[in-house]
Specification:
The complex is a heterodimer. By secondary structure, chain A is mainly alpha-helical. Chain A has a domain at 47-129: Herpes Virus-1. Helix content of chain A is 54%, strand content 4%. Chain A has a two-stranded antiparallel ribbon. In chain A, α2 (16-34) crosses α3. The longest helix of chain A has 28 residues, at 121-148. By secondary structure, chain B is α+β, with helices and mostly antiparallel strands. Chain B has two domains: 3-118, Ubiquitin Conjugating Enzyme (Roll); 128-198, no CATH class. Chain B contains eight helices and four strands. A four-stranded antiparallel beta sheet of chain B has the order 1-2-3-4. The longest helix of chain B is centred in the first third of the chain and has 16 residues, at 3-18. Chain B is elongated and about 55 Å long. Classes of the chains: A mainly alpha, B alpha+beta. Chains A and B meet through α6 of A and α1 of B.
Chain lengths: 149, 199
């Protein structure tokens, strides 16, 4: 086991939770390196986890003016006076009940796929890793352009 | 069925009926019976594809949890396509699975299926046999898909060569759908199809 930890540069004296997190990250990295398309998909294809409750509570109520003549794109009904609605951070508005039912199942905006944070640690780690990889690739591409253009 | 699902399907009906695609005869939705839980979809084969000129019928089942879960959709018309089972009509399309979003509608589903017919994704196949042919023998694939469109979906392209091969197998007592399936699978090699059917 020692050699396994050595290989991944994990200090055995590390606090267990930190170690678990680092190992998970390393595992993701190895899976990505092994077969990025397949393992990217593997995590991606498990349907997205529900949005975090605290994130849902943070959503704000739109002004009535914003609802006038508009339609909730989940139930396809026009907004009526006294209807309760919520605004996503991406500015898309839905009925409160419609949106909450959706976010209890999936963490993204039904219209533009903007993602709210989830309570699923694996999923958050995976997304973080994906973001880092994209940033790295962009950097390399930029560097390449600088050198050869 | 709960209210939101029924209410939504009713509203969507109006949407599809009003849509310009219906006017162009490219997509259509009909009720099956009185309930809004089972519907029949219809899509025209997209132009410049082997499916052109064909009419494809779909079975659409609306779950009680719609629109929070996707409708269950299957091809009732037999079709030769890498992402659709040539046997059961089951479809491999991300928006009918994990990529579904509550703002999508029957109209977006039918249009996505039409787009899938125009641009197959052989690396994410539902029918491995078809996908293999699509990648290795694209010309045979196009001819086979066009022939299936003619036989099952009313498409215009007859193929007398394929017909006569099927007739040869029918003469040996094989049922025509089965003969067509075996010949399509073996790239219209009569010998190999016969071998497989009688093994």
């Amino acid at each position: 086991m020692a050699s396994y930890f050595d290989e991944l540069h994990v200090d055995e004296d590390e606090v267990p939770t930190v170690r678990v997190e680092r190992l998970t990250r390393e595992t993701f990295r190895m899976l990505f390196d092994h077969d990025p398309i397949r393992y990217g998909d593997m995590v991606n294809y498990q349907s997205s986890p529900p949005a975090s409750k605290s994130e849902i509570e943070k959503l704000i109520t739109p002004l009535f003016d914003e609802l006038l003549g508009e339609q909730c794109r989940i139930c396809l009904c026009q907004y009526q006076v006294n209807d309760k609605a919520l605004t996503m951070p991406c500015k898309h508005i839905f009925h409160e009940d419609c949106l909450k039912t959706w976010l209890e199942k999936s963490n993204f905006c039904p219209l533009c796929k903007f993602e709210l944070k989830t309570d699923n640690k694996m999923y958050e780690l995976y997304k973080e890793e994906l973001k880092k990889r994209q940033a790295r690739e962009n950097n390399i591409a930029q560097l390449h352009d600088l050198m050869f253009s | 069925m709960n209210n939101i699902a029924t209410q939504r399907i009713k509203r969507e009906f109006k949407e599809v009926i009003k849509s310009e695609e219906l006017a162009k005869c490219s997509i259509k939705v009909d009720l099956v019976g009185d309930s809004y839980t089972e519907l029949k979809g219809e899509i025209a084969g997209p132009p410049d594809t082997p499916y052109e000129g064909g009419k494809f019928f779909l079975e659409i089942k609306v779950p009680e949890t719609y629109p929070f879960n996707p409708p269950k959709v299957r091809f009732m018309t037999k079709i030769w396509h890498p992402n659709i089972s040539s046997v059961t009509g089951a479809i491999c399309l991300d928006i009918l699975k994990d990529q579904w979003a509550a703002a999508m509608t029957l109209r977006t589903v039918l249009l996505s299926l039409q787009a899938l017919m125009a641009a197959a994704e052989p690396d994410d196949p539902q029918d491995a046999v078809v996908a293999k042919q699509y990648k290795e023998y694209p010309e045979i694939f196009a001819k086979t898909a066009s022939y299936w469109t003619n036989v099952y979906a009313g498409g215009p392209n007859k193929n007398t060569d394929f017909d006569s091969k099927i007739q040869r197998l029918k003469d040996m007592g094989i049922e025509s759908d089965q003969a067509r399936g075996a010949l399509s699978t073996f790239n219209w090699d009569l010998e190999r199809a016969t071998e497989q059917l009688f093994s």
